[in-house]
């Protein structure tokens, strides 16, 4: 079936998924491009695909074709990919594993995406996002993950409550701050841990800091006040990877 | 003096500095915001400042005032800062130091800026940019450096020639690739080294690879094909920092 009208209900539904409110209502989100679609497909997250006329993608999911104009209308990119996927939101699992990353109010979509990519690279089992973190299903976040959001358990939660639970279950809680912590290089590594990274401007919230067992800092030249949070997180996860 | 006309020659000159061609001709570039201006001032790079009417900034450099309209016209930002600085281009020094970072055709301005910030954090003495690298004075690069471009020696050069020179001077040349190298974690660290990082899509050019003494890779989970080059560079520089 080739769709060509913006008035079609299915097309309108896809377009609405640009907005968080509608993504939350429907439990769906959009991805664009072959690489992302293949990653989502491997994990069974594709509901249906919208392809540019004459594009061939032999996947066992419902496929719809759309005109170039419609593709541009449905896409969140200035130069749309010929492949748009409607995905089911990620299904978090209860088994958190031993290696947890907690993000407290990360606001920049590129930072969140990069952090998810690095978390997969360095074998994090579960990422817990505070409720004030930028939306995981924001298209810029998804693009920056390079599809790796489908390869790690991601949970949206009240992190204060969650950290209290983790402490009861003998997770070691690492916080981060710029000074007055233990240097990352001389850190004693724990097998079962959660590491908390904070907001770009203000770091970890005070009430969350109070729950930490130990603070880590990355030693650096005094001319540099701080690192980008995506960089800092990646370095810490690299070091904590056995 | 309060400027209000777009036709004024000085104002036209500033506006032209948005373009690389004119930056190169004049040996000047623009920075915006108090933090960047203060960093440039400390190092003596400010030629003159343009401030929004009634802004006070007690620095010992020529100061001009401009109307809000004119500020918007001169700025490269959608929401201009009240402070615009015209800077002299960085003066490279011949003494390269022992710790060198070479960038081969990095194209994303945010990546270049982030890499410069991390290079300062982890005590790199000199950054050598290949001639096909994105322009150092691009406003997005400068913003991403957070002002740290003023704290490290940066050279634009034919990197192939430069690497041959470094080899004669007993620098150990580290290359990077995704596989078939030495794991960063088990690397023997050299006191006098240059590390080469390559383009976002294709890595290090073949003719440059041939000049490397040793290749490094960052061990990661097989679900992750690669890291963002800003992240990978930062992790390597962190590890090479004693």
Order of helices and strands of chain A: EHHEHEEHEEHEHEHEEEHEH
Low-confidence stretches of chain A: none
Characterize the quaternary organization of these chains. Answer: homodimer
CATH class category of the largest domain in chain A: Alpha Beta
Largest interface: A-B, 26 and 26 residues
Explained architecture:
The structure is a homodimer of 242-residue chains. The mean pLDDT of chain A is 95. A 7-stranded parallel sheet of chain A has the order 8-7-6-11-9-12-10, covered by helices on one side. In chain A, strands 1-4-3-5-2 form a 5-stranded mixed sheet. The first copy, chain A, has helices spanning 9-16, 20-26, 34-42, 68-74, 109-121, 139-145, 159-168, 206-209, 229-240, and strands at residues 2-3, 28-32, 46-52, 63-66, 83-88, 99-104, 126-130, 153-157, 172-176, 182-183, 193-198, 214-217. Chain A has 242 residues and is an alpha/beta fold. Chain A starts with a strand and ends with a helix. In chain A, α6 (139-145) links the parallel β7 (126-130) and β8. Chain A has 2 domains: 2-88, Ribosomal protein L30/S12 (60s Ribosomal Protein L30, Chain: A), CATH 3.30.1330; 99-240, Alpha/beta knot (3-Layer(aba) Sandwich).
Helices and strands in order:
The structure is a homodimer of 242-residue chains.
Chain A: E1 2-3, H1 9-16, H2 20-26, E2 28-32, H3 34-42, E3 46-52, E4 63-66, H4 68-74, E5 83-88, E6 99-104, H5 109-121, E7 126-130, H6 139-145, E8 153-157, H7 159-168, E9 172-176, E10 182-183, E11 193-198, H8 206-209, E12 214-217, H9 229-240
Helix pairs in contact in A: 5-6, 5-9
